Amino acid sequence: MMSQTAPEPTTDGRTTSATTSAASSASGGSASGSAAVSRWRRIAVIVIVASFSITALVGILALLLGSLGDVQWRILGTTSLVGTFSVLALCHLAVVAGAYRWIAAAGLLVSALALLIGLGMIWAPDDWMFRSTFGWQSFGITAVLAVSAAHANLLLILGRRRRPLVRIGLWVTIGLIALLAALLVLEIATEWGISSDGFTRLIGTVAILDVLGTVVVPVLAVFLRDDAGSAATPDAADSTDSAAVPVSSVTAERLDTLRAGRGISRERLIEELVAAADEARRSIS
Questions:
Q1: Quick check: helix, strand or coil at residue 12?
Q2: Which ranges are annotated Low complexity under compositional bias (predicted)?
Q3: What's the confidence (pLDDT) of residue 158?
Q4: Distance between CA atoms of residues 250 and 209, nearest Å
Q5: 134 pairs with which residues across the strands?
Q6: CB 150 within 8 A of CB 91
Q7: pLDDT tens sequence across 54-68
Q8: Fewer Cβ in 10 A, N or C end of the chain?
Q9: What burial letters (b/e) apply to 76-102, b meaning 16+ CB within 10 Å?
């Protein structure tokens, strides 16, 4: 009669096989989730580029083949509006797969709302609400929020950095972006009714500090790179019970460069690469 050896228990009371299974399941779920987000992001980028290309082509045809009448100006306005908000959407998609995906989702939502309001202002009849003061205020507020969210999302690519000076500068700049957006929204909502010399100076000061942080923080991130220990430590939201795999210093540096550009942890980057390789293997076979 063959004897069966019980799985070796771990220090926390779980068996080795159970621990391995749980780690594999967590890693597989995270990888599949990352692959799904990346797939939808690629689709969104394709749709944005295609829509902007079509509107640009229509705008060129309107300029070359027709006189600059009311319809042509509306077409050119539509082209400019779609192009502008396509760029904003690409900024939001830069962090849609990272820990700050909720900011990206909010930015995409408010950008789509601003685009719809803007298109309504261009094409709606003069007696519709889009041409009223409420329409202009709605477009101005949503446009400010969309631009501010895009600005913040571009900076949040550096959100995984561990250097204290970079992190402090990043979040101070994010706070200045939010403050400047709030001041501009307040001005638009009151139809510039609270404008005064002091308030204008405040907006100008916050805007200058905002631009300063936008320039200085990425420069600091270039010169103050994370060391190997902090770079390899994933955020708590992305951590899994998996074993560390040693890599060469060259490979580690390349991984850090890639993950810094994506705004994700090294572990998440490896999971996405493995998922992409597995998907390519299945497509070939």
A1: coil
A2: 15-33
A3: 86
A4: 37
A5: none
A6: yes
A7: 877 877 877 777 666
A8: N
A9: bbbbebbbbbbebbbbbbbbbbbbbee
